[in-house]
Amino acid sequence: MPELRKDPILRRWVIIATERARRPSDFLGKKKDTKGPVGFCPFCDGNEDKTPPEIFALPHGNRQPNTSGWRTRVVPNKYPALAIEGDLGRQGVGYYDRMNGIGAHEVLIETPDHDLEMGDMSISQLVMILKTYRARISDLLNDRRLRYLLIFKNFGAAAGASLEHPHTQLIATPITPRAVKQELQSALDHFHDKERCLFCDILYQELREEERIVSANDHFVALCPFASRFPFETWIFPKKHAAHFSTSSDDLLNQLAYCLRDALKRIATALDSPPYNFVLHNSPNVMSRARHPGYWQTLDLDYHWHIEIMPRLTKVAGFEWGTGFYINPTPPEQAAKYLRDVKVSFPD
Amino acid sequence: MPELRKDPILRRWVIIATERARRPSDFLGKKKDTKGPVGFCPFCDGNEDKTPPEIFALPHGNRQPNTSGWRTRVVPNKYPALAIEGDLGRQGVGYYDRMNGIGAHEVLIETPDHDLEMGDMSISQLVMILKTYRARISDLLNDRRLRYLLIFKNFGAAAGASLEHPHTQLIATPITPRAVKQELQSALDHFHDKERCLFCDILYQELREEERIVSANDHFVALCPFASRFPFETWIFPKKHAAHFSTSSDDLLNQLAYCLRDALKRIATALDSPPYNFVLHNSPNVMSRARHPGYWQTLDLDYHWHIEIMPRLTKVAGFEWGTGFYINPTPPEQAAKYLRDVKVSFPD
């Protein structure tokens, strides 16, 4: 059973993955787990029996589970960081806090096509991916042990991807992560002060000033944030206030597909398909938010979901680890201008 | 002039290094700044005229500055992230906060010998390095614009080092970094509750339980922390309470030299000289601490300086960026046992 441990000094939680304990020799020579024959991909069409049994797939229809014919497919991670079965087992160990590593760790296979990046997909495929995110979040919200559902994508080996086939991951945790708590606290403080959403206020300022905007459509805006940690960091916000991604309508997901594809394609074109991470910042489960002082007064009017895309162009070193702040060599105003000016075209 | 910007959502500061603005093309093909002929090192003995003029060197003696004959030497970083001259220029920009990127960025050249790693140095050389740290911190404490002095080392390209020659860096910032504020807050809360140092309490528990201890001498202990973020992460603490590294006596630095060398050598031996970062976590400048509510009651009895060594064996990916928590595949109890059991030997 993996274990969750809390640092009493930094109040941050760590997953200790005790089941695949790594010895020094495992880190030498960068050996990889064998994943079958070279060139074999368990996520490709026709290899459905090489993954753990599927949890979800689109489109819905007459297809048998774990057979060909899907356009998106969700399976448990074969090497999960957290285990789905069991009790939380919260314990104090002297000055320390621990609990069992309960949660979910799923792989969302974005397409049967091994080589199709998100920036080059059709809108209908991207909408299907976004509907898959929505469906998995909505389902896991029912598990009362889980406090937070994190959707994230690692693209490229330097961004932590261990398989090439286009995929997103979902990790559900029994605690609200520290970075999310900080966002919630800022948003809540702002709301108590002004009775307005901090994110909405920032968007209003950004849309008026324009210099950090990458693109916008009727319902979404992509921008390089004022205090970007990384060169060409790009965030996508719904223009209309919404705390929970999972309440998005089909229409809204359709607009998001256009905005997300456009941003990824601009980054890929300007920077020659760099490795990147993206993370969906969503409101925590209600059970979790309820524990946050003052939450009930806000009725979800304070938090605003969004996507953060982080190209991995610079190395994070001792300075960043030691302080939690970052050196970014590219001012976001310049990054936004480059991304705005780059020429992109799409299959549809 | 570089700029410091604060994210209003995560309340984290970022350095926007406006002077060396990077265009997309600078990130393609991983071009490096030219640093003279291949094989040339500006930090080697005899090349003193190839660095900016030196700030400090040891041993003190009759030597002319910027000539041969030093054992440690401190120079300004040629490409500083922060500028030493100027006013802070704090400003609000709508919902955002900014200030000028004032601070110091120095390179502490650890030895004239290009190939000598810390784990293989003599104790007298290591003591000289630690005295150099102490001298630079003590000097910069006099600059009232500066709130925090960070000493850190990046070893190996994967840990962010751009030059091979053994060196440490110092960055002095006009704000207290968020990660440090969190440590201070935890320590202060604990002190107000118990009138004891949180770190001292943790050390007492660790020394009694022993399972995460790597090594100890009369005055220092090296251990793998309970909630280690990274495999084989190792922290070094003085056993006796002290908030400020810069108050360490020569005797204490001598003992630290033994403990630090031992820990680095164990990591290098067990893991085949992995890339690593280490960071000295020191109490902020008094000016900075004074702003922390409740500080004056504690008289420095709450904070406890220490060194955090982080081998870079795993990749940080979307999950970590999105949540601020970490997946560590090696339980610290096992890491500590491996490091305890590995055989090491030293030149003196």
Write the layout of secondary structure elements.
Two copies of one chain form a homodimer.
Chain A: E1 3-6, E2 13-16, H1 24-27, E3 56-58, E4 72-76, E5 91-93, E6 96-100, E7 104-109, H2 123-140, E8 148-155, E9 167-173, H3 178-194, H4 198-209, E10 213-216, E11 220-223, E12 234-238, H5 250-271, E13 276-281, H6 286-290, H7 295-298, E14 306-311, H8 318-323, E15 326-328, H9 332-341
Kindly describe this structure:
Two copies of one chain form a homodimer. Chain A has 348 residues and is α+β, with helices and mostly antiparallel strands. Helix content of chain A is 28%, strand content 21%. In chain A, the strands form two sheets. A ten-stranded antiparallel sheet of chain A has the order 3-4-7-9-8-13-14-12-11-10, with helices on both faces. In chain A, helix 2 (123-140) crosses helix 5 (250-271). The N and C termini of chain A lie far apart (46 Å). In chain A, 51% of the residues are buried. Chains A and B meet through strand 1, strand 2, strand 8, strand 9 and helix 3 of A and strand 1, strand 2, strand 8, strand 9 and helix 3 of B. Strand 2 (13-16) of chain A pairs parallel with strand 15 (326-328) of chain B, so a sheet runs across the interface.
